[in-house]
Amino acid sequence: MLKLKSSREIEAMRNAGLVVWEAHQIAKRLVRPGATTGEIDQAVEQFFHKKNVVPLFKGVPGRVPFPAVCCISVNDEVVHGIPGSRKLQEGDIISIDTGCKLKGWCGDCAYTHAVGQVTDEVQKLLDCTSGVLQLAIKLMGSRSRWGDVASEMATFVRDYGFSVVENFVGHGIGKSMHEDPQVPNFCSPSFRRKHDFDLEPGLVIAVEPMVNIGTKKVHVLPDFWTQSTNDGSYSAHFEHTIAMTEDGPLALTAAPQSDEEKKMTGVVTTTEG
Ligand code: MG
């Protein structure tokens, strides 16, 4: 069952999304050669604690409960990487995915960062993956069904010569991190027939393209969580929590826009003169 949200509920989700955005600013500043993925996770955990919000990822059930507040996936790791003692190196890429619940409402967002200088091909992968998320947000304002957005996303990635991961998809989000519907980044005939949905006001979904340089195929590592590409090629992942409103799509985990939002996140604006 697809639960549409009222404009008030979407406002509450925006507040959660702003905390997630701020967590990402803290994480991003720590990305450099020599930093460990565990340090980044700890900084985000401390920030969530200070903000008095509930981390969404820690304790998620599996063969072993997920042990951290961020999924951190490096290079050929696609998603669900476990932060730890791994040291980042020049030329790595690092996907940081995190989320929190504020006053009962969830926000979920991921970015992939370059560690120092990366190769041209890897930079192209980052541009493609962030670009396809931006494309999806834009298309959500003009298409009526998700399947139309998803099939254009797949074409965009194919034109780069990269592949869309199909084993993992985005999701509805609200009071729970994972709600209906499933939100694939590609469109199959069976999705169109059985699972497609309208892009109507009140819909809130986490859109999260995962793009690989090589094969789309992935496998899980012995830690029971980390998903890695089968051919060892690099993978990027970007995600926003996006609401459909009467005025079109709104990325709830994007940077603060109004002065009021900037104040909430402690972003200082300087006025000259
Ligand atoms: Mg997600």
Q: How would you describe what is shown here?
A:
This protein is an alpha+beta fold. It has one domain (7-265): Creatinase/methionine aminopeptidase superfamily (Creatine Amidinohydrolase), CATH 3.90.230. Helices cover 32% and strands 24% of the residues. It has 6 helices and 15 strands. It has helices at 7-30, 37-51, 120-139, 146-160, 189-194, 259-264; strands at residues 54-55, 70-74, 77-79, 93-102, 105-114, 163-164, 170-172, 179-183, 204-207, 210-212, 218-220, 227-229, 235-237, 240-245, 248-251. It has a 5-stranded antiparallel β-sheet. Helix 1 (7-30) runs antiparallel to helix 2 and helix 3 packs antiparallel against helix 4 (146-160). The protein is globular. Bound molecules: magnesium ion. Magnesium ion is lined by residues 108, 171, 206, 208, 239.
What would you say about this model in short?
With 273 residues, the protein is α+β, with helices and mostly antiparallel strands. It contains 6 helices and 15 strands.
Describe how the helices and strands are arranged.
Elements: H1 7-30, H2 37-51, E1 54-55, E2 70-74, E3 77-79, E4 93-102, E5 105-114, H3 120-139, H4 146-160, E6 163-164, E7 170-172, E8 179-183, H5 189-194, E9 204-207, E10 210-212, E11 218-220, E12 227-229, E13 235-237, E14 240-245, E15 248-251, H6 259-264
Antiparallel strand pairs: 1-4, 2-4, 3-12, 4-5, 6-10, 7-8, 7-9, 9-14, 10-13, 11-12, 14-15
Helix pairs in contact: 1-2, 3-4
Bound molecules: magnesium ion (MG).
